[in-house]
Structure formats: C-alpha cells, structure tokens
Amino acid sequence: xxxxxxxxxxxxxxxxxxxxxxxxxxxxxxxxxxxxxxxxxxxxxxxxxxxxxxxxxxxxxxxxxxxxxxxxxxxxxxxxxxxxxxxxxxxxxxxxxxxxxxxxxxxxxxxxxxxxxxxxxxxxxxxxxxxxxxxxxxxxxxxxxxxxxxxxxxxxxxxxxxxxxxxxxxxxxxxxxxxxxxxxxxxxxxxxxxxxxxxxxxxxxxxxxxxxxxxxxxxxxxxxxxxxxxxxxxxxxxxxxxxxxxxxxxxxxxxxxxxxxxxxxxxxxxxxxxxxxxxxxxxxxxxxxxxxxxxxxxxxxxxxxxxxxxxxxxxxxxxxxxxxxxxxxxxxxxxxxxxxxxxxxxxxxxxxxxxxxxxxxxxxxxxxxxxxxxxxxxxxxxxxxxxxxxxx
Amino acid sequence: xxxxxxxxxxxxxxxxxxxxxxxxxxxxxxxxxxxxxxxxxxxxxxxxxxxxxxxxxxxxxxxxxxxxxxxxxxxxxxxxxxxxxxxxxxxxxxxxxxxxxxxxxxxxxxxxxxxxxxxxxxxxxxxxxxxxxxxxxxxxxxxxxxxxxxxxxxxxxxxxxxxxxxxxxxxxxxxxxxxxxxxxxxxxxxxxxxxxxxxxxxxxxxxxxxxxxxxxxxxxxxxxxxxxxxxxxxxxxxxxxxxxxxxxxxxxxxxxxxxxxxxxxxxxxxxxxxxxxxxxxxxxxxxxxxxxxxxxxxxxxxxxxxxxxxxxxxxxxxxxxxxxxxxxx
Lengths: 392, 329
Known about the structure:
The structure holds 2 protein chains of 2 kinds.
Chain A: E1 40-42, H1 50-61, E2 64-65, H2 73-81, H3 89-103, E3 108-111, H4 118-131, E4 138-141, H5 150-160, H6 167-194, H7 203-216, H8 221-237, E5 247-253, H9 267-273, E6 276-280, H10 284-289, H11 293-299, H12 312-324, E7 329-335, H13 339-355, E8 359-364, H14 371-390
Chain B: E1 9-17, E2 21-28, E3 33-40, H1 45-59, E4 65-73, H2 77-84, E5 88-89, H3 92-103, E6 109-113, E7 118-124, E8 127-133, H4 142-152, H5 159-164, H6 177-190, H7 194-212, E9 223-226, H8 233-243, E10 247-248, H9 256-267, E11 285-291, E12 300-306, E13 309-314
Parallel strand pairs in B: 1-4, 4-5, 6-9, 9-10
Antiparallel strand pairs in B: 1-2, 2-3, 6-7, 7-8, 11-12, 12-13
C-alpha cells in the first residue's frame, strides 16, 4: 500500500493561515423552503369578517392579503353600473368591491357559494370584470368545488393561489379561523345587545375597532382566545345605562344584506342610536358552523314544512324565537328581488298575525339615500315604544 | 278651567310638509283645532311653510292664544323644523297615528294615501301595533291620480262625482303606473265612457292599495281613511265595496299629520317650551348643499341658514362631515 502511494499527491494537506482564528462552522439544518405565495388575495366586504378573511389568506392560503378601506358610495356606483339592473343588491356591492380591489393591486378574488343565485355570481362577475378590461387576475370561486371532497378544495387553492401550500399548517390554522369567527360573532352579539345604552357616545364603537385590530394581529389559537377575552373585558367595563325594559328588536333576513352594514345602510347603528337592544341570529357561526337546517325548520313549525332555500328556515325560526322570547318587534331585511326571502314573507306575516307582533319589512336596492329608511325605522321605534309603555 | 285675565292660553302649532301639499294647524291644550291651513307645496317647502304660518296667524286670535311649542312632520320635517325652531320633529307615520287615535279612540285601521306615499296603520287599544308603507314606487297615490286626471281633461276634485255616475266601471290594472296608463289609454281608444274609466281608476287605486300596501295585514273596522286621496269620494266608495265595511273620512282627515304633530308638540317636556314668535317672514331661509370631501362617500351635507346664520345641517354619514351651528345665545 505504501509503495502504491509513493510519489502520488498527498491525500490531504493542512495549511496554517496567518491572522485571527475563525469559529468552526457546523452544518446547519437545511433552510425551510419559503412556502409563501406572493399572490395578492382580496375578498368582498362582508360585515366585520374582514378580520377572518385576512387570517384565512395569511395563515391558511399563506398569501398576501389586500386590505380594502371601507366601501363608499363610489364602490356601489361602479358595481351598479356594470351589473344587470335586476340582479340583487349584494351582486352590485361585491362587484364594486372587486373593481376597487383590482385597482388596489389584487390578483386573486375570492367568491363563495350558496344555495341561491350566489352560486353563479363568481363566474358572472369574473366575466364582467374581464369584459371591463381587467385581465391580470384569477378567481378563487368556491362554487367550482362545492360539494366535492376536501382534497379538491386543497387542489383548487393550490392551483389558484399557492402551489406550495402546507396542508398540515392550513388545516391547523383553519381550526383557529373557525374559533376566531365564533369569537367575532359572540362579541357582536354582546355589542348589539348593549351598545344602544352606552353612556359615552361612540365608546362601544371605539372598543370594537380596537378589538378588531387586536384580533387582526392574532396567529395562534391562544392569541385568538386571549384577544377575545381582552375585547370582552373591555366591552363589559364600559358604562351603560340600560333601562329595565328596553325596546328589543330582532333582525332577520337575507344573509348578505342583513349582516353587512354597507348594504343595509347601517340599520344596526341607526337602531342602536334609538336606544334599542338588538339581536341578530344570522351570522356565520349560526348559519354555517352550527347550522342544522332540519332543526331550524322544526323549530319554525308549523310555519315551514319544506326547505325553501338558503336562509329561509333560519329567518323564520329566528323571527319566531324572538317573538316567543318577548322581543317587541322584528325587522326583516332583504335585497330587492331576493326570491328565497320573498318566499319568507307570507309565513312571517302569518307569524305576526298569530302572535300580534309587528314585523317591519325592508327591501334594499342600490339606493344611497336613507331618508325613507329613517322614516320607517323611526316610526317602527315610536310604535314599539308607545306600545310598550301601554302594556305593563 | 277658568282663564286668568291677561295671561294667554297655550296653543300648539303643527306643520306637515308633504311632497304635494303643506298642512298646518294650531290646537289648544285640549286638542281643539283653532286654525287650519292647507296649500300646495309647489316644490318649495320653506316657502310653503312660511305661507302656512301666515295663514294660521291670520286665523288665530293671537291676543288670546300663545303658541308655546311647534311640531313638524312630513318629508320636509327636518328642514321646516329647523326653520320654525320646532321642539318635535316626527315622522308622518307616528304623527298620523297619534292624530287619528286622538280623534277616533276606537279606530282599528288607518288607511292613508298621500301624494307620494301610502301607508296602513293597524291600531289596537289606541296604540299603533303594526304599519306598512309603500316601497319603491308611487303607483296608486295622489300624484298618479292627478296626472291621470290631467290626461282625461278633468279636475281631480271632480273624480268622485263623475265616478258615482258610472254603472260599469272599467277594469284597469293599477299595479304599475306605466301599465295603468297604457291600459287607460287603451280603454279610452276602444270606446269606454270616460266616467267608466274614471270609476275604474278609483277602483284600481283601492285594489292596488289593498293588494300591495295592506298585503298580509288584517283590515278591521272601524276604518279611517285619510290623506289627500280620501277627499276623492270615488276611491272611498271603492274601498267600502272592496272591504265590505264602512270607511270613515274625517272632515279634517287631510290635516291629520299636522294635527298629530301639534299633539306631539303639546306632549314635549315643559322645559323646551318657548313662545313662537310668528316672525318667519322677517328672516330669509336659505339652504346650501355642501359636498363633503373628507372621504369617497362624498356626502351631500345640507346646511340651513337663517339670514346668514347657520341653524342646522344634516346629510353627513359620519362625524367627519359634521357641520355644527354655533350654540344659541
């Protein structure tokens, strides 16, 4: 062996370099691949769920979120201009939101699916936007995969938004998201019941803004729970002067218009400013996460026998429950031309007659003047208050 | 109650500024109407309110009565309220309910058809328990009737008498103003008599009202019918036929909103009472629309000026667009 190597190059050499000694370099673990997608995802405006949409984008899809300022009159103007006149108002609001999001640099737009025409809205809105000349965007339209197995959802999100999406992290964060939505809804329930009786004007509104910002910064389940606790503590600490028998009103109706202040001309704020205790069963928690159509329908018996569409059973059962719980009145909110909610009106009228409880029916289109709404709400409030005064 | 010599009795002013007509009444503390006025708004609510106040001032014994509180209602309630310094600014539904239940304590259903809107108020035990108002369109209201009267070349005031002479009212669809109009033209061209068409029109107003505004509401006697259209005996008869019950029309039915506003003003807290100066003629009232540029909502803020002093403003959706008048000295 030794002879073989004779005259060959030395296997290794050691050289000494002058100067300071360097620390020994240990082999590092291989850096994690960056799974983040640079797609800029935008949603429509829908009540206070903006916070949840952001969490979904950043922690489930792992992409950039385009946070949009509150919709304005211009948003609706653009939306109505490019929509069919007879389509329901949510379509117009959402289309306007999309245009503003694209102007702000979004390149993925998210649309949901439902049990009504909403299922077709994503496709139609995409076509309208492309006709308007917006090319550089994709739709994440969940109606394409609705009813299909979970892996199709994942494949679809991967295809449109983030090919490196981590399924494990996504699922874990989805659970956090669901908790967040439940907290947002629970917070809102307390807000609606008490904000009308605040002592310092706008104190509830300010607390709510702070809560949303707090929630927006959360990333783990513990963060979300703590933010909720902090928010509720702050809200409960605010001084209120609630009369013994406040006027109580329940809000029911179409899932978009009844829950979105920009669509219903802030009906909740208007009623709260009249010192009314409000309740709205319709929210994502009650309508999607914990919803059982059959149970809702049964509790609305005998007013409903069949499933009539997206929110019909919920609307009627919620109205019935409010009245049975002694609420003074119910406001039914829908957009013009919403067929499922129009179908709800005869059972609601029957309910109102049977229980001698007033129900105010409001229909919204893309109107922006709220004088007519103010008149109706004021009259409704006066009526409830006078009625309450006489019936002790 | 004996009146102490010298001290004037208290009275209350109510003004109802609707889209077509402006109504005003002065009542005393017992709710008796002391002065009444009814005239056309003519698209100028401030001017109409000024004329109403002048008419009332001429009718009222101002030595004996002193107006201590003002209530306004109707679609221009806020503007006229600012102008008259009203203590109470109430919506027309409440005002009508309050006024009617005062005069007819046993009323169960109030039908009201005005110039632009129509409503039904259900009353139980003197308290409104349910109401509905027309949505989206003005078919079958006063302005529709007067435009059709114009087309037929008769005065809308004569409608009732002409309709009474008809034996076979024409069948006219009044669900939508546009359809009703083409139906009406068609009937005339086919050769229907004018009186039959007019009677059909009155009938159509009543059925349209019952099928739309009053849909789902139980109409129970006693029924009171008010608003400008209640002066049309043809429509009253059509309602009686459709409902199969008597429909009461008050001589002051068209003033009921103003009357209700006066009653509400009388109910306002004592501390807010202030003698009404009858000086609206001495000031010039101006409104100015300002487009708020603080965000993309571009709210149109309406500012009301008395001479050059800002007295009220509205139209802003948030506090950023608030324009506040200087506190009264």
